[in-house]
Amino acid sequence: MSRLIIVEDQLSLLKSLKKGLEEEGFEVMTASSGSEGYKMIQHEPADAVLLDLMLPDGDGISLLQRIREEEFQKPVLVITAKDSIDDRVLGLNSGADDYLVKPFAFNELLARLRAILRRSPTSNFDTRLVYDDLKLDSLSRIASRGGQELKLTQRQFELLEYLLRNKNRIVSRDALARDVWKAATATWTNVIEVQINQLRKKLGGSGAEPILHTVRGEGYQLGDEP
């Protein structure tokens, strides 16, 4: 799951972007000022930053230049109402990886974001996961087994991605509740069991070899049989 920082002072847009990107499987942290955004970029690991240029406590260009001078190397996508050629050139020359003018379509922002994440040479985030004939692309949100695309719900996709990132390791219900559901185990144990069973059926279509195993009293393992 890619982690994003959004620095945007227009709260309605900030909330809308956070909601939309989380629905697409991103983990999103937000800041509504340049100073707050700078501290977050310094202390929170992130795979990319979405940066507005007109902030209440300063120019976003100055923030962009500052973090680049301090060797922040993750992708930065500028989102701004400044639409002149000079503004675009300044943004890109100051260290932006892409420049998107408001108002914009969410699908375009999503496509541009995924593009800069794909081409980022500094990202440690593996977007393509494989186990045997099971493949998952976290950016395109496509999973397949034996060349056949799996029809997964958003939650099932997140669950499969988490299991693949921990393949051949036993994952407890506590870990799934904490990292996938972001909730307490006591509340979500039955829901987790239901989703695991549904995911297992989808992975086992057409007589495929079982790869999602229940380890009694411990949790679940995707991969070799424990």
Description:
The chain is of the alpha/beta class and 226 residues long. 41% of the residues lie in helices and 22% in strands. The protein folds into two domains: 3-118, Rossmann fold (3-Layer(aba) Sandwich), CATH 3.40.50.2300; 128-222, Winged helix-like DNA-binding domain superfamily/Winged helix DNA-binding domain (Arc Repressor Mutant, subunit A), CATH 1.10.10.10. The protein has helices at residues 11-23, 34-43, 60-69, 85-93, 106-118, 154-165, 173-179, 185-203; strands at residues 3-7, 27-31, 48-51, 54-55, 58-59, 76-80, 98-101, 128-131, 134-137, 142-145, 148-149, 212-215, 219-222. The strands form four sheets. It has a five-stranded parallel beta sheet with strand order 2-1-3-6-7, with helices on both faces. It has a four-stranded antiparallel beta sheet with strand order 8-9-10-11, with helices on one face. It starts with a strand and ends with a strand. The model has no long low-confidence stretch (mean pLDDT 88).
SSE layout and pairing:
Elements: E1 3-7, H1 11-23, E2 27-31, H2 34-43, E3 48-51, E4 54-55, E5 58-59, H3 60-69, E6 76-80, H4 85-93, E7 98-101, H5 106-118, E8 128-131, E9 134-137, E10 142-145, E11 148-149, H6 154-165, H7 173-179, H8 185-203, E12 212-215, E13 219-222
Parallel strand pairs: 1-2, 1-3, 3-6, 6-7
Antiparallel strand pairs: 4-5, 8-9, 9-10, 10-11, 12-13
Helix pairs in contact: 6-8, 7-8
Global mean pLDDT? 88
User: The biggest beta sheet, please?
Assistant: 5 strands, parallel
Total discrete domains: 2
CA-based shape: elongated
Radius of gyration: 20 Å
Which architecture of the largest domain per CATH? 3-Layer(aba) Sandwich
Q: For the terminal residues, how far apart are their CA atoms?
A: 26 Å
Taken in chain order, the helices and strands follow as EHEHEEEHEHEHEEEEHHHEE
User: Class of the largest domain, according to the CATH hierarchy?
Assistant: Alpha Beta
CATH superfamily of the largest domain: Response regulator
Strand neighbour order, sheet with most strands: 2-1-3-6-7
Question: Given the helix and strand composition, which structural class is it?
Answer: alpha/beta
Binned, the helix content reads 40-55%
What is the CATH third-level topology name of the largest domain? Rossmann fold
Strand % is: 15-25%
Q: How many DSSP helices? A: 8
Modified residues (4-aspartylphosphate): 52
Protein name: Response regulator MprA
Pfam family, one: Response_reg
Domain Response regulatory: 3-117
